[in-house]
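Standup notes
- DV: blocked on the single-chain target, sequence here:
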Amino acid sequence: MTLLDVARARHDTPGCAEVVHLNNAGAALPPAPVLDAVIGHLRLEARLGGYEAAAAAAVKVDAVYEAIARLIGCLPGEIAVVENATRAWDMAFYALRFKPGDRILTSRAEYASNVIAFLQVARRTGLRVEVVDDDEHGQLSVRDLERRLDGDVKLVAVTHVPTQSGLVNPAAEIGRLTRAAGVPFLLDACQSVGQLPVDVRELGCDLLSATGRKFLRGPRGTGFLYVSERLADTLEPPFLDLHAAIWTSHDAYEIRPGARRFENWETNYAAKIGLGVAVDYALSWGVEAIEERVTALAARLRRRLGELPRVTVQDRGQRLCGIVTFTVDGESAADVHHRLGAAGINTSVSAVTSARYDLGGRGLAAVVRASVHYYNTDEEIDALCAILQY
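- DV (later): unblocked, structure below
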């Protein structure tokens, strides 16, 4: 077992002195180096001007792509840095082309924004959206996915870790099947990057979207898209500007090569640099060590919640992560969330409107979500459980 220096992690995190933060799946507390990087660049912009500060920070900006590439096991040229994970996912999905009779396969745990995009394109093109069955553990059934994969399937799109449960979908097994079938695999890694080791080569995904604000502990308004080198130049993004393409003659343009065709010219340089610092900070701790501590803290929280008479833990999956969801008999999820918040404990609520296939199928209107990170402590878990005893 790798022991993290929790005292140092909390010292690096100013917010730990203010709140019990168990809403890391919403937005984690940023460490001081990220704050310093963002504020430092804003000060540089104030001194030099925005364009001039960006030019002066060119090395730092390039380092963002290199850091992300190290984090997920790819090349810097396979990374686009964009405003958020939703924009990253949308830029990939809407670059794909579908026709009537095509099929998309997805999971029961899929996130609302992704499903809405599926349904919109289905209305436009006549494609069909199919939800792969869960297995006995409540995760995507690899056997059912294999049964459904045929020549009409043009995309498999799956959320790695859903917003409403602690499960980790079997992404590597999905990637093995999609590669063998020659079907593109789009992985929403919004909740997994930063708390779990994610290697795109091992997972076999062609496209991956992620955010900065969650377990990576980066600034809000940052995200990135991985596009495999073999696929990038075959895709035309849903919109282009003079960063994504070059206006080559009066009536012609050329799209730039690689993943950066999915970016646009204007960007928040301070936040972008902060994202790179957040990635380096996570790598300095070691993602495997982070996973080990996060998983252990979450297991302790599930165990403690299971001892409380009115509480039901709602997590499903063979492999569980740092997201813990539960309900309390006789109280709505919103009321529990507010009661915990009044005691200085941050959690969040996942409602059926965010995960209708899953929560709706289980008859759950909403769940309380407590999501731990490596800077959290046993005492903070006990504090949450103490509130729920009454």
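- Follow-up: The longest strand covers residues 153-159.
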